[in-house]
């Protein structure tokens, strides 16, 4: 009995630092990577009903050039165009976007190699993209946690689709991919961020993506933001 | 249009002939662009939870000026609220398409380097008074560098900027089946971590064309 109590106390003592570390870690940096997918709608299939020939019985109208037609020239003495029909159209406008960019006070603590990635994909298909972007934690801290997920589902002018249709395989760039892909969580749908990795020191991760588009998706650009948050 | 056509041979015979004339007219499209179209315009850092108050840069003013993000950090993300209102008046009963593109990349005037104009994103906003709930994490679509021909002044800070598409247009960023729609946009800026220090600018050009 006494030995059991000692073992229990030892187990608790060993477990406490792990729990404590998770509890006391605070957010140090947060970045996002935009994922935009230019969707090509599923092409309409042509029905082959065997009646596509151009035999005479299928022709219901025919245009024939009359080679004997005499050219007729017309002369206009006082052609006038109403001023309300010819206008200089003001169909463009421009706005200047400007910013003064300064060095990041957090340096390169948490960075991605690109602010966003763009894919071209046909609705109804599944495509895997190997390492379209990387995420790097650059620190001397020996114990940190990196969380990730999508902030929203994917939205575009043609509608939306769930962020769960995009799965990730986040692995060390120097290592090998995990055996399987995991759908992103979607924060704005009420889900909690999940841990991408708990590690230490400087690490760079490849984020492989596997995107499955619904077959009914309308064409156009759809986008969401993948969010990465560093705690220690 | 008043049009009078006469067959020359008709003079000799002192007779007239009826002529049917047909032509196609191009729809009349007028676009009005208003930057900073509502009180509360300006830059907000991308944070989750309670949103800080928007703070525009010095070259932004209500219903005018630039979309000026002010001083921001490399590698960080921001949203600019109430960036642009596009109003279109058209005679095309089929509606209109609106295109929005960068006339150039995001140009650093200090060292003449550039980052991609696709670091700037657009997302739909709301009319003034409706409450803009977008954040720096809301879904947004990157602006593209135009494949049209920008005017010579498009690469200058003073502008103005125009793009000649020659009839070949990119994918629209907004469409409408009505002849006089309004579109409202916020912008996001995802500054690359590699962006050098300096003052950047780019012209975003909106074009409306009848469908």
Explain this structure.
The complex is a heterodimer of chains A (232) and B (211). Chain A contains one helix and 14 strands. Chain A has 232 residues and is mainly beta. Chain A is globular and about 110 Å long. In chain A, strands 1, 5, 7, 8, 9, 12 and 14 form a seven-stranded mixed beta sheet that branches. Chain A has a five-stranded antiparallel beta sheet with strand order 4-6-13-10-11, with no helix packed on it. Chain B is mainly β and 211 residues long. Chain B is built from one helix and 17 strands. Chain B is globular. The mean pLDDT of chain B is 91. Chains A and B meet through strand 1, strand 2, strand 3, strand 8 and strand 14 of A and strand 1, strand 2, strand 6, strand 7 and strand 12 of B. Strand 3 of chain A pairs antiparallel with strand 17 of chain B, so a sheet runs across the interface.
Main beta-sheet strand count, sense and barrel state of chain A: 7 strands, mixed
> How would you spell out the order of helices and strands of chain A?
HEEEEEEEEEEEEEE
Regarding quaternary structure, what we see is heterodimer
Note the gap between the termini of chain B. 23 Å
Chain-averaged pLDDT of chain B: 91
Task: Tell me the total number of β-strands of chain B.
Answer: 17
Distance N terminus to C terminus of chain A? Answer: 39 Å
What CATH architecture of the domain at 27-42 and 105-231 in chain A would you give? Sandwich
Give the amount of beta strand of chain A, in percent: 35-45%
Question: What structural category do the secondary elements of chain B indicate?
Answer: mainly beta
Task: Note the main sheet of chain B.
Answer: 6 strands, antiparallel
Q: Nearest-angstrom radius of gyration of chain B?
A: 23 Å
Helix count from the secondary structure assignment of chain A: 1
Regions of chain A with pLDDT < 50 over 5+ consecutive residues? 12-21, 50-54, 78-88
Helix amount of chain A, in percent? under 10%
CATH class of the domain at 27-42 and 105-231 in chain A: Mainly Beta
Give the class of chain A from helix and strand content and strand pairing. mainly beta
